[in-house]
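During the reporting period, our protein records have gained a structure token line. A sample record is set out beneath this paragraph:
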Amino acid sequence: EYSTLLIKLGFRQGMSCPNVFYHPERRICCSVHGDDFASSGPADALDWFERAVGENYEITIGPRLGPAPQDAKEGRALNRVIRWRPDGVEYEADPRQAERLIADCGLEGANPVGTPGVRASFKEVENDEALPQRLHTAFRSASARGNYLSADRVDCQFACKEVCRYMASPTTESWKALKRLARFLAGVPRLVYVYRLQEIGALDVYTDTDWAGCPKTRKSTSGGCVMMGSHTVKHWSSTQASVSLSSGEAEFNGVIRGAGHGLGFQALLRDFGVDIPLRVWTDSSAAVGICSRQGLGKLRHLDTHTLWIQQAVRSGRVDLRKVLGSENPADLLTKHSLTKEKLAELVELHNCRYLDGRAESAPQVKKGGSERLTMAQADKDLNELAEDGTAWMPHLSLTTEELDRRFPTLVAPDEELLNDDDHCAQDTVLQHGFTLAKKIAEDMVATGRTRHDPLGRVEDRVDSAAEDPCGQDSSCANGSRARTPPLRTPGQVERAYPFPARQDSCWAGRRCADSAAGDPWAGRACVPVPCEAGPMLGRHQNALRRD
């Protein structure tokens, strides 16, 4: 309905964008967003326009910015802050978005960081895990706020794009990336676009591409910005839909995207009565070569619908030029590997500057209780993501299901070599040790722990059937029989069981070396160890000594 009224008033509706209007006689430019009208033009022409619209609708007139003393110097349009300056206009994002994002992440007053993001290593990508389902809403809410803010923050648009790639399936690494973005915004909450008075002769579009920059999918990122002289009027950062097989192919796709944005913006300016040529800049010689030739050449895997750029270059609709990579402002929109100094340099190329404080006309953040789960509250369930390295215990911080998932029970391998139950059952020394341990435990229950036998018992003895301890009727593999001496003191146990230096040797016929010390068992055969039990002796040696 409003378009009919504006056409009756003498406006010309845009061909490329139907919600923009231009009055050639009164030189009024008007953009309509819903029921919000934003117009610019001479003061007397705007007075006429306000009266004409007020006769047909109930309207609320906002502040009018201008150089006159009665004009306002600061106002809001769609909650964006716009300031009038003697040398031009300043524009900045709605500050509430950054403030709410920082508050949702629980990072108010936190130490800031110099860059909005860092490139994830291959190990971090490999060990990345999915967030619990109950935290998805908190992550998506904060990510969407960052995405809305990125349209007015060229310095963090790439970081916001990378975070939003995980909105369908949030992970722990994307959670960390979002918190780092909030820390960066805490250090530089305001980015102001400066639009000084100037004269231009062309529309410039800068493009850049990070080939296979995603370590997980190996997809490339295209970024670019539309410049009117020194004014940044549009910027973007997007992941390419397909995997490029070469850097030249990736850069070629980036040029196509930039040329499309440039032609669209050129058509929009034409709707406002401004007709200027288009220049597209890239730092890739391969992309310049592909756009300058005719046909696919060796790149036959590319779709033919992308070759319109070749005809546009040949016809002169697009003026394609080469720019140095170090001087390309679109480099800010394609990668994380930027230092704080390089970031500030690229921000300055976009004719932007950082400010402290808060704009006077900026809307205030509403304070009040809310039942929705924020990242700050959800962070209590993710102690493993604490950036300060605080120690935590899994059994106290995780539920039973999460504990079993993150720390599964270790299952021993079913290997025959590890199954020695049959071998232990044939080990006479081990079985006798079990018998002694059982008797000691029974005596401890009856009389308590003591060094000497309080009941004066003597262990059962197995008399030797032959003078030779290695006789044929013995139970050992080498013909020896086991003898069980009375165990009354630890010293007697040591003298009765002198363990050999080598575990695999047969010492069935060894005599005690303490015969001169008055040992009652001096000169008699010590307890023999079967040869096949040699490898098992080391495992049970300490247990027998304790017994």
About this structure: The first strand starts at residue 12 and ends at 13. Confidence is low (pLDDT under 50) at residues 384-389, 458-488, 499-547. Residues 19 and 32 are 5 Å apart (CA to CA).
